[in-house]
Amino acid sequence: MTAHVRRVLPDATERLRFREMAPSDLDAMADMLGDPEVMTFYPAPETRDESAGWIEGMQRRYREHGHGLWIIETHDGDFVGECGITWQSVNEVAVLEVGYHVRRAMQRRGYATEAARACVELVRREFAPTLLTAIIHPDNTASRRVAEALGMRHIDDDHAHPWIVRTVMGMQVEPAASR
């Protein structure tokens, strides 16, 4: 018998809302994850089957950890991308990471930063004190700018992947001050 895991979601922002991924998101996710520009800093764009596996993996994370990457959409329901918190490994040490992908047509509007800030507040409310990271391809300056806007700084390099040394940005998240 599996223990009940409490699921969490970031609060909605001025322009965005969060929800768990579902199989019905496959077309939008496959379009985004299959876009070579969106996936420039990954080994290759994801196929439709790999995108379905991505959604299944997030649903497993929701069940096992109560969180993962969530769909981000406008308040009108337009698909923006995904953003959330997941357990990752940096040099074989488990770390909490904030991650984000925004579909090409919605990039350069501040959505990744807005969504990631909401995730930082969720971490502050639910998991603090803790280290929060963003694990980034060293050439991905846009993703690094999002991490820096959150208050992160370069804290390490991850040597665990045979094909790349990833930049690890991080910050200590403290609990919100009680009123």
Layout of helices and strands:
Elements (H helix, E strand, L loop, with lengths): L15 E4 L6 H8 L14 H18 L3 E6 L4 E12 L2 E10 L8 H16 L3 E7 L4 H10 L2 E9 L2 E10 L6
Parallel strand pairs: 4-5
Antiparallel strand pairs: 1-2, 2-3, 3-4, 5-7, 6-7
Helix pairs in contact: 1-2, 3-4
Helix content, binned percent: 25-40%
Structural class category: alpha+beta
Largest sheet at a glance? 7 strands, mixed
What are the low-pLDDT stretches, counting only 5+ consecutive residues below 50?
A: none
Mean pLDDT comes to: 96
Overall 3D form: globular
Radius of gyration: 16 Å
Q: SSE string, helix = H, strand = E? A: EHHEEEHEHEE
The count of strands amounts to: 7
Number of helices: 4
Beta-strand portion reads: 25-35%
Which strand order does the major sheet show?
1-2-3-4-5-7-6
Describe the structure.
The protein is α+β, with helices and mostly antiparallel strands. It is 29% helix and 32% strand. It has four helices and seven strands, in the order E-H-H-E-E-E-H-E-H-E-E. The chain has helices spanning 26-33, 48-65, 111-126, 141-150, and strands at residues 16-19, 69-74, 79-90, 93-102, 130-136, 153-161, 164-173. The chain has a seven-stranded mixed β-sheet, sandwiched between helices. A hairpin with a 2-residue loop joins strand 6 (153-161) and strand 7. Helix 1 (26-33) crosses helix 2 (48-65) and helix 3 (111-126) crosses helix 4. The protein is globular, with a radius of gyration of 16 Å. The termini are far apart.
